[in-house]
Amino acid sequence: MFSNLMSRLGRRWLPLLCMAVLIVGLPVSCGVLKYTERELLFRIEPGNAGWYRGLPQDVQEFDIKPASFKAGQSLHAWWWPAARRDAPSILYLHGVRWNLTGQAFRIEQLRAMGYSVLAIDYRGFGQSKGDLPSEASVYEDARAAWERFTQMQPDANKRLIYGHSLGGAVAIDLAADLTAQAKKEHGVVPVRGLVIESTFTSLGDAVAQVADSNLPVKWLPARWLLSQKFDSIDKIVDINMPLLAVHGLADPFMPSRFSQQLFNAANEPKHLLLVPGGTHNNSMSQGGTQYRQALDGLMKTKPTQMAGPAVVRVSRES
Fold first, then answer.
1. Is residue 244 a part of any domain in this protein?
2. Does some domain include residue 3?
3. 164 - beta bridge partners?
4. pLDDT score of 296
5. pLDDT over 60 at 27, yes or no
6. Is 173 designated active site?
7. Other CB atoms within 10 A of residue 247 CB
8. Could you give the CA distance from residue 124 to residue 129 in angstroms, rounded to a whole number?
9. Active-site hit among 177, 280, 296, 318
10. What confidence tens digit (pLDDT) does each residue in 256-286 have?
11. Which of 165, 202, 259, 283 is catalytic?
12. Global pTM value
């Protein structure tokens, strides 16, 4: 009984305690404050996810060690090639808490749709070697993964970048960087499109959402205290590639209005898929056929085209 009570109180007061830690820590040490913030943000779970049942034999595991990394640092990666040798490929960037073993079910679904998938753990996650992640380090990790991805899939027209949850913010940053580089070189962005799922407009907006939903004290200045920004809403306006934004309408953590706002700010061509009954983690399976059609439509979309209606709600029969 007591343990159940404490569990309920913990769920209710955890956001308040997090904010209290940040506020009390301000006059003590900015370094300690930022480290605590990163711990609370990434919430890394050690070991394998409880639902992980191992990898199929055709998945290749390897480490990525770019020259920019410090000695002893590396990214652990999975490469799961599709059955078709000429299949398009996806660079998969995950969110917080769970390492690759917690993503296997979603990676498997993408592969079942006919895509080869390269997925990485950021430094500090899973078998990747490195310190506690930061906004800067996960961006750097995504760029290192991109370099390997271009080797695995040399055809730019068969490349997609996919980001789930916080990984959506990482994917947006990578896409914005690739767009800026192509513009500087007067070239073409070397990727077919961008997929973001269950993500947010900025970390400040996400924290404010949690605070507004759970805290009895509404005036805590969460946005001002954050050193990790993940300002996707400011970056997406500069991206020049087809976009697919997906969000479950029953997401209890990140409301679908975040994806709607990102979609509204993004350049054409773009597509928004809203999934009734979809939660933070199951929109891919709940979306069914229409999710697959939206993904395939992205592959067929050219920068000057739209493939079908811009906004779609998945029907209950899908």
1. yes
2. no
3. 197
4. 94
5. no
6. no
7. 27
8. 6
9. 280
10. 999 999 999 999 999 999 999 999 999 999 9
11. 165
12. 0.86
Work out how many domains the chain is built from and give that number. Answer: 1
Of the listed 89, 251, 256, 271, which one is catalytic?
Answer: 251
Asked if 121 is an active-site residue, the reply is: no
- pLDDT at residue 34, rounded to an integer: 86
Residue 36 within any structural domain of the chain: no
Q: 10 Å Cβ neighbour count for 245?
A: 28
- Domain span including residue 301: 56-200+229-313
Q: Return the pLDDT at 311.
A: 55
Convert the pLDDT of each residue in 186-206 to its tens digit.
999 999 999 999 999 999 999
Q: What is the CATH number of the domain that holds 242?
A: 3.40.50.1820
Tell me if residue 251 is catalytic.
Answer: yes
Residue 148, domain member (yes or no): yes
